[in-house]
Amino acid sequence: MTNSCPPPRLPKGNDRYDAVSYTPYPSNIPRARRRVAQLAVDWGHPDVAGDAALLASELCTNALLHGCLRDRLFRVETSLTGNALRVAVTDPRGERLPYTPTPVADDQFGRGLLIVRTLANRWSVEKLTVGKTVWAELDMRGSLDAQAAEPSAQVPRRYLGRTAKGDADGSRVAERGGRGPGGHRVQG
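^ thats the sequence. predicted structure below, dont judge the formating
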């Protein structure tokens, strides 16, 4: 068992890493989704921004529904290596491991991990000393050198989802964000 979910290997050269902790409220799921999509664009991979956003949304929703405890944060870690973009969500309930049920046509729930399994090239669960991390990876096409990010690139609107009033540019998130335990940014 480990007590954190580090990137697949230590960042070097063109590798990237980001971690943000969120309060366990539904309004933070679209914030995490937008952040992961924007990171994919900023890191030079706009072609996977939509899939990365959907993975983040599904993993965060699962953490919120099945893994969060009142007043305990969940963390979204995004990392990019030369060959993969990883989205990892850590929550405090390690005893509740995810599984992929066979959904019935009328069910409103139960398809999130099926979506993750379909989109991701790899996904898994890591039990931690306290909690668990569910991660999914998307393979990157081409090298990072060939796909340098433009600083002004924006995530296409279709990946952003609905935003709260005054939150379209992330300004309200930045106002409320602070530093939590371990120096991680906290949203919400």
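The longest strand covers residues 84-91.
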